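Quarterly update from the structural biology core.
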Amino acid sequence: MNENKLVIVDGTPVGSGQPCYFIAEIAGNFANETEAIRIVEAAHGAGAQAIKFQTFDADTITTRSNRFDMVAVGNRPQYDLFRETQTPAELQRFIVSYCKARGITVFSAPSHLRDLDLMMEMDMPAWKIGSDLATHIPLLREIARTGKPIFLSTGMCSMDEVERSVAAIREEGDAGLLLFHCVANYPGLAREQNLLAMSSMRERFKLPVGYSDHVAGIAISLAAVALGAEMIERHFWCTGNQAGADRGISSDETEFLQLTREAGDISLAIGTGCKEPAESERKNLCSNRVSIIVMRDAPAGAFLTPQIIDIRRPGTGLPPSEWPHVIGRKLKLRMAAETPLTWECLE
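Predicted structure, tokenized:
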């Protein structure tokens, strides 16, 4: 299997050797068309390559007796919160149409098989599967048959569960699968993020692997980039919009822009792993490195002693490692003080 598998998402290659791909999760943080336009433009301007929202219906996502017990939303019936925050179908169609007209990649995450009819009608270029549905094999198979790339979040999953889900998708004709490591708790705790799991999944599945971040602030996302994350998903909110339940873990325009810019610097800094002088330091090899220097005027035939030679800058003479081999040697020619010593100077 190809160790450097790339997945093409709406014309953009994602994976090994490519710039980190940023997804702005905007669900819950826009309430109408005006706010939809505002948040799309803000996220795009802050460096997001893709906009992602959520397609769900309170009547199919949960039972009425099921409750949340999380800091972000408190202890309350899930049905009530989903009823308040679900995005109407017409607003979903609007935001997809707007993004397509602007040339901005947009896709959504379903919560139930019944959501697929609307999502297929909107004809988005990719699918996002949230951690809650990561083990929903019938839904994964149905989506895989569409032949579009799938971003699969793996929060709450063991490696064996990820294995089964990946296998099910691949059995249906994998058109491109990308895995997100994440911890499905809101807000997330830094000590629980286990970012090294990204490497374990990349090694196991030979797929692009990224990090879906639910921790307040961007520090953990930046750490994920430093550890090789090929995609980052963060919740996004912009000034002037309604604040949804995830506002506490959402980056605004300023923070998201900081993330994308600093991640770019980190990606550049990671390099190739080959230990050698950087291009900019090659010019310093002579002036900033030390070598063996004749420190006083010495006639031809003089024997070299620690009183005559020293190790200091510049680095144009013999390297310090040759010190034991030049002590006691005779000069072949006269040397002026502060002259780098070379083999040509010795008998």
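The chain is about 30% helix and 20% strand.
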